[in-house]
Amino acid sequence: MDLELVTIGTELLLGFTIDSNAAEIARALASVGARVVRRTTVGDDPAAITDAVRDGLARTGFVVTTGGLGPTRDDVTKRAVAALFGAPLVVDPVYLDQLRQRFQRLGRGPMPESNRTQAEIPRGAIVLPNQWGTAPGLWLQGEPGVAVVLPGVPREVRGLLEHEVGPRVQELVARLGGAPTVTLSRTLRTTGITESALADRIGPLEDRFAPVTLAYLPTVEGVDLRLTAWGLKRADAERVLGDAAEMLKPVLGEHCYGEDGCDLAAVVLARLERRGARLAVAESCTGGLLGGRITAVPGASRTFVGGVVAYTNDVKVSELGVPQALLEQHGAVSEPVVRAMAEEVTRRFGATAGLAVTGIAGPTGGTPEKPVGTVWLAAFLEGRCETALRRFPGDRQHIRQRSAQAALDLLRRMLQ
Amino acid sequence: MDLELVTIGTELLLGFTIDSNAAEIARALASVGARVVRRTTVGDDPAAITDAVRDGLARTGFVVTTGGLGPTRDDVTKRAVAALFGAPLVVDPVYLDQLRQRFQRLGRGPMPESNRTQAEIPRGAIVLPNQWGTAPGLWLQGEPGVAVVLPGVPREVRGLLEHEVGPRVQELVARLGGAPTVTLSRTLRTTGITESALADRIGPLEDRFAPVTLAYLPTVEGVDLRLTAWGLKRADAERVLGDAAEMLKPVLGEHCYGEDGCDLAAVVLARLERRGARLAVAESCTGGLLGGRITAVPGASRTFVGGVVAYTNDVKVSELGVPQALLEQHGAVSEPVVRAMAEEVTRRFGATAGLAVTGIAGPTGGTPEKPVGTVWLAAFLEGRCETALRRFPGDRQHIRQRSAQAALDLLRRMLQ
Fold first, then answer.
1. Separation CA B131–CA A101 (nearest Å)
2. Residue A271: which CATH number?
């Protein structure tokens, strides 16, 4: 089933706000068999909203709107859509009562009169209860087709999609007969291999993935490979995606560390925890970024003990015990120093695994021998230490993020 | 001058990619006097592209497209738009030569034949040189109006907007006569004060900002206040924005730490550097995030020496010298412990300023007395130590980010 999306807000149009709802709605609807074929964004302007919704209904018979459902001046969407369906607005006493109770429950005092308009419902519309905010979603069905009117707050949109809109759209798709089709994706996450090296490995296979398509998505964390099955029955989509993933995995080998939202730090922590290891980190150019990523994982405290940010050479000597002679002979960005950092931090912190990073993140500090982007990494695990030299492209932030990722990856491969 | 924006890509429509170009283009054009009044997103489908561009031209006479200019199957936009202008595609020998040279220069070997289509230009179109990629922008002018065709890669779009499209649009606006008007914004960044407390302070003034409007934008770093002047001559817009900002600043007082893209860590480092101070950090729940933020600022090494991530109590004792008795008596999340962390890290690292954070980021670990979100902060500066207790809302990531921001803010206020 095809539909159109209309996102509403002068802020969106002016580029002050990024339209993240649009992506969220499209993904949620694709997974229940409805395909967004056009998206239109207009300002908080009744005539423009009316135009966009009417044209969308004329083309597909199904329009979802988001935004323009606030309690005050923003309330234009509901009025515009109701008019298209010839439905007068009438106060819904049940909903008005719920609104009043909500204000009471949150201890916000009596409900302001401006919120009363939120209880005005186009006659005949289905109210989609919004337990995440005050403006309900609306489902209008009539001569022009179906219009679903959603608020603009992302959290509320997400809740309404999952609990109200998704199930109803799925039901509608089923009622329309025919086999409902969905568009589904799976992403294999790789790191430590370039996009072109991946393409060389995968290229010869690509024809065999059909009807699944493959997209290369390079990020600072590596290259994600997104497999997509388009417009198939759910069971078929899942099967062909599974087949393609199974074909791809052996080709990717150890470069693949997980799927979809999988985080490399979580993978490393899980493997360390399984062998009862304890991790410490010593950071120079990443300045805490690596520890920050590790501790972003809930439950990191079961494995991670802490670390030292040794930004200056003095601190590398005093807090990590890196011999002054090593620093003088090889420089702070060198294999002997990164190795000493990893070994020392592991020992000092009573850990069994350690990671160290030292490099030149720029924009200044590069030399012809060690240009900006030069980074030494070390991973220490139960008596064994491995090091790696990398030359990362990109700006200061990219180099630091790539460094943290590469350090985690070095340890992951030792834990394989 | 009004115009419409057409963003092209099946990936955008499906919600796999967030449409960040759209926002960038709208902002850039607003600053030279052109207003995006509608945005349409369609897939990589010639008929849909043709429809959207034709309708946009009919409504406003000016359409900017982005996406669908790649060397292979994506090349549909150029063909669709050229057809609307009745312009046949002809190979531009000068551009073809430049393309070949580019491949040579980047050492990528001979240019693949698939890139040859990028040198095909609609007859009569102006080529907008793209030094950031291979597909040039195009400026078509004719009976249907003006169409500007841009690639989809954000870096290329940004470059073309600044160097090619912006100046031409500005010139066009001027040539169309009348006073060109622009929409400009200024953002005052605040932290350490809630949105509602700000509204209480600012409310009585708000009428006096007209014609400038004010938007409250809460983030994990604080509340940004965006002032916008709509559709004025540039000089007038700048003047009324300046007036509004001057009116607002005394009301915000020390809660305001900067404007627009200003980063609090950079503000703190600059103030420390001015007095020749050296900074160290001791982090528990933020796990390195605070150091990571500080070292994201280029030149941080002039002021920042390093820090300790003391995630476990053992490390707080062994690496920071926090007395075991304090931990046992008050718990790790307490004023005496955070104070000891700040003082000790400053002393041990030979610094003159120190920051410390200890808290409960969740999702587990909360108690009735110290629920998730409880965070103690300390800032030490030249012999003086200040502490603060906060209860942050949000999830683990939000609590950690708010903690880092609040720690920096505590020190900023001491440096006032």
1. 60
2. 3.90.950.20
* Of B363, B221, B338, B352, residue with least CA distance to B283: B338
B312 touches chain A (CB under 8 A): yes
Query: 0.95 cut: is pTM over it?
Result: no
B348 close to A (CB below 8 A) = yes
What's the one-letter identity of residue A193?
I
Q: Which domain holds residue A143?
A: 2-175
ipTM over 0.90: no
Q: Domain tally for chain B?
A: 3
Nearest residue in B to A35, CA atom: B14
Among A259, A290, A316, residue at a domain's last position = A259
B346 contacts: CB under 8 Å, gap ≥ 6: B280, B352, B353, B354, B380
Q: Render each residue's pLDDT in chain A as its tens digit; 416 residues.
A: 899 999 998 888 888 888 889 999 999 998 888 999 999 999 888 999 999 999 999 999 999 999 876 554 446 899 999 999 999 999 999 888 888 887 777 666 777 776 777 888 999 999 998 888 778 899 999 999 999 999 888 888 999 999 999 999 999 988 887 667 888 889 999 999 988 888 888 988 888 888 898 888 888 899 999 899 988 998 999 999 999 999 999 999 999 999 998 999 999 999 999 999 999 999 999 999 999 999 999 999 999 999 999 999 999 999 999 999 999 999 999 999 999 999 999 999 999 999 999 999 999 999 999 999 999 999 999 999 999 999 998 899 999 999 999 999 999 999 98
Q: Are B263 and B297 in contact (CB under 8 A)?
A: yes
In terms of domains, do B93 and B188 share one?
no
Taking an 8 Å cut-off on Cβ atoms, the answer to whether A311 and B300 are in contact is: yes
- Residue A288 touches chain B, beta carbons under 8 Å: yes
Q: Taking a contact as any Cβ pair under 8 Å apart, which residues of chain A between 204 and 233 contact chain B? A: 215, 226, 228
H-helix or E-strand spanning residue B261: none
Strand partners, A185: A228
A291 and B310 in contact by Cβ < 8 A? no
CATH code of residue B132: 3.40.980.10
Closest chain B C-alpha to A370 CA, distance in angstroms: 18
Amino acid at B64: V
The closest CB to that of B14, out of A26, A294, A305, belongs to A26
- Could you give the CA distance from residue B283 to residue A306 in angstroms, rounded to a whole number? 9
| Residues 371-400 (B) with a CB less than 8 A from some CB of A | 396-397, 400
Q: Which residue among B259, B285, B307 closes a domain?
A: B259
Query: Do B306 and A305 lie within an 8 Å CB cutoff?
Result: no
Q: Which helix (H) or strand (E) holds A369?
A: none
